[in-house]
Design goal:
There is one protein chain. The protein is an alpha/beta fold. The protein folds into 2 domains: about 10-390, no CATH class; about 415-695, 3-Layer(aba) Sandwich (Rossmann fold). The protein is built from 27 helices and 11 strands. Strands 1-3-2-5-8-10 form a 6-stranded mixed beta sheet, sandwiched between helices. Strands 4-6-7 form a 3-stranded antiparallel beta sheet, covered by helices on one side. The longest helix has 30 residues, at about 85-115. It is globular. Residues about 1-15, about 15-25 and about 680-695 have low confidence and may be disordered.
């Protein structure tokens, strides 16, 4: 592990003085180092769930601005003196970023060999390979949102920012070289950077509503933050300000508002990221490196070690979650900080011991730096590829079959991706099974509508006269008058369009399926109520449920309209879901030899208690419109518990919520046939009979 920060968090570019020859400052930029300490502290405390740092994720935006400033100062300054070498620039960046990243990936993979079951170890190998190739931002962009709770299982999630930086480093010097050659007097570099920054900012803000993950993870949408630092370097560096401390105060105020007042419910980065970025620009432009606040020893030490802190803090968080230390307490936070400090200190001790070895006894001294780097990279990359290729299941041959069964369950999902939600133009993407007629059954909902797809696919296969149409969108509840605060799945308008689709085609039966009880929780603040004054949240439960009654009243009116036109309405209550990702948790506990009893069941009474306010309202709604309310818990659970495993210990679930396709096709879910209009012949089909014998 290295303790030297890279350009992302610190750089030898701290000693820089602008872009003009003869004007390089020999003094160390304590102010930039202090900004780095502030940023890494905010990120760490946010990830460690310190409640008064709800916007600590803005620390990464501060890092991006710092990096843009330093890189521009280095490149443009050397270009002005005709001493810039792009290969030396790449080499310097690699020397400061890659060793620490190699140490991180190698250390995690070594520990994971003994602690992680094959599914988790395979994922770690894939993440490590992506991080080492600096493409992890693309990997996570294709997955879930950065702010989703499930991302805690991604051991190297934080390396997305390193990938963005590295991609910037590859392209940015080429841009500045071209601008320098086209206009050696540098008159055009400032307007060029402004135009590029504006274009990147618009690219970040405008499509962010429809592609939030792209805005968060990808370089084109993030480049404006680094270009903002570059603009400071070429336009405002070395400027003498009359009241520099006003700039400092305004800058830190802007950063502080972002860190202490923003939270994960905001679309990010979007226009909100202007605040910490402008604040960072103001602090750098003020150019007061010798201010007493900045020269504090603790602040400077934190800034110098910021890269090591950033690299290792997230795996400490992920490791705590993996080992069940999930409750946020002062003791847990303190323990995480101490573990992080111990890891970094151990790395420092190792470096001191290595440096104490006489040069003639160091094998690496006889090898060129490039060769040493290639060897280290090959070891780490080879380790990652071995892990990524199946997770090395041979580590536990005694339970290999059981682990494979868990892995198979986790992949047992068959809803077509091309039928999810809406297309780029906002058009619905229906999925039709069976006869091509509009008089069949329409299923509307979220992923809980998707996971029943397999049963309907079999119904259409064995009874071609049946017709089923799915309109389903991830994370989008079938309700009107409310919307997601962070609409990362483009839910806005989806359900209204689905009801219009139903009205235009005269389906004989409409089934609404959703994870109902997950959305309507006043404490979660996932959704807001649409009013004439905008979309508002309600924290107080009684006010919240009054507003929810209004929203359900709107839904009632629309469903009554469909009912009057001859459609039967069925509301399918949520399937039981619980705390554990069943296949992953069973695999982990089996691998580590831990007890699995609490994973095998969901407490029905606890589930019903939490869901009661929403369930009662939906039952009443179904009764008022003459529809049908179906409660899966009456068929899948006994009075006390809902099993998550079959008699052989094979999971019914693919994760903590969704039923696997094989289970859905079995006789266990025969209760869906009648309310959905499925012929009884389905359960006599060969596949279903075979499945029912097991489940």
């Amino acid at each position: 592990m290295t303790v030297m920060p890279p350009a992302l968090h610190c750089d030898h570019g701290d000693r820089t003085g602008g872009i003009l020859p003869g004007r390089e400052r020999p003094k160390f930029r304590h102010d930039i180092n202090a900004l780095r300490a502030l940023a890494v502290g905010a990120v760490v405390l946010y990830h460690y769930k310190v409640s008064f740092i709800p916007g600590g994720f803005a620390g990464v935006d501060v890092f991006f601005v710092i990096s843009g400033y330093l890189m521009t100062a280095i490149i443009a300054g050397r270009l002005a003196k005709d001493s810039f070498s792009i290969w030396q620039f790449y080499r310097d960046r690699a020397r400061r970023i890659v060793p620490g990243l190699l140490g991180l990936c190698t250390g995690l993979l070594a520990a994971g060999y003994f602690l992680l079951e094959p599914m988790a170890y395979k994922a770690m190998g894939q993440e490590s390979a992506a991080a080492l190739l600096f493409v992890s931002n693309f990997k996570y962009w294709q997955g879930s949102s950065y702010f989703d709770p499930g991302t805690i299982r991604n051991w190297l999630l934080h390396t997305w920012s390193l990938s963005v930086e590295w991609q910037f480093y590859l392209l940015y010097p080429i841009l500045l070289i071209c601008l320098h050659k086209a206009n050696p007097a540098r008159r055009r570099i400032i307007p060029a950077l402004w135009l590029l920054a504006l274009f990147s900012f618009l690219l970040c803000v405008w499509p962010a509503k429809y592609h939030p993950e792209s805005a968060f993870y990808l370089l084109p949408q993030r480049a404006w933050e680094m270009l903002a630092g570059g603009i400071v370097a070429v336009q405002f560096d070395n400027r003498q300000w009359k009241y520099p401390f006003l700039l400092l105060g305004a800058g830190f105020l802007a950063i502080g508002i972002a860190i202490f007042a923003f939270d994960a419910t905001l679309a990010w980065p979007s226009c909100y990221a202007l605040l910490p970025c402008i604040g960072t620009c103001l602090v750098i432009a003020a150019n007061r490196p010798a201010a007493s606040l900045f020269t504090n020893r603790l602040i400077q030490m934190t800034g110098r070690w910021s890269y090591a802190i950033y690299l290792w803090h997230w795996p400490v968080t992920a490791g705590a979650a993996y080992l069940y230390f999930v409750d946020t307490t002062a003791l847990k936070i303190a323990a995480e900080m101490l573990i992080l400090a111990a890891i970094i200190s151990a790395g420092g001790v190792c470096l001191v011991l290595i440096q104490a070895i006489p040069a003639q006894f160091r094998v690496q001294e006889s090898l060129p730096a490039a060769a040493r780097g290639a060897i280290a990279f090959s070891i780490a990359a080879g380790f990652a590829l071995l892990a990524a290729n199946g997770g090395m299941p041979g580590r536990r041959p005694d339970i290999a079959k059981k682990l494979q069964a868990y892995a198979d369950a986790a992949q047992d999902w068959n809803y077509p991706s091309e039928c999810m939600g809406t297309d780029a133009a906002g058009n619905l993407r229906p999925c039709r099974l069976g006869a091509a007629v509009d008089s069949g059954v329409l299923i509307i909902g979220d992923s809980f509508a998707m996971h029943i797809y397999g049963r309907f696919a079999d119904a259409a296969k064995f009874n071609p006269q049946n017709s089923f149409t799915f309109l389903a969108s991830l994370g989008c509840p079938p309700v009107l008058g409310m919307r997601m605060i962070d609409d990362r799945y483009n839910c806005s308008g989806f359900f209204d369009k689905a009801l219009q689709f139903a009205k235009a085609r005269h389906f004989k039966r409409i089934l609404l399926a959703s994870r109902w009880n997950a959305y309507f929780r006043p404490q979660e603040r996932w959704m807001c109520f649409e009013t004439t004054e905008g979309c508002k949240t309600e924290k107080e439960p009684s006010s919240y449920y009054r507003q929810l009654d209004v929203a359900f009243g709107t839904l009632r009116s629309r469903l009554l309209g469909l009912k009057k036109e001859g459609a039967e309405i069925v509301i399918l209550w949520t399937m039981p879901w619980g705390r554990w990702n069943v296949p992953a948790e069973m695999a982990k506990r089996s691998f580590l030899g831990l007890d699995t009893q609490d994973v095998a069941y969901i407490d029905r009474n606890e589930f019903e208690r939490k869901a009661e306010p929403v369930k009662l309202r939906l039952e009443e709604l179904a009764s008022e419109i003459g529809g049908r309310f179906v409660d899966p818990l009456d068929f899948l659970c006994d009075d006390m518990r809902c099993p998550t495993l079959d008699r052989d210990g094979t999971p019914y679930y693919i994760d903590d919520q969704h039923i696997r396709s094989k289970t859905m096709r079995s006789a266990r879910f025969r209760f869906l046939d009648d309310p959905a209009g499925i012929s009884e012949q389905l359960t006599k089909a060969p596949e279903a009979v075979a499945a029912s014998s097991k489940y």
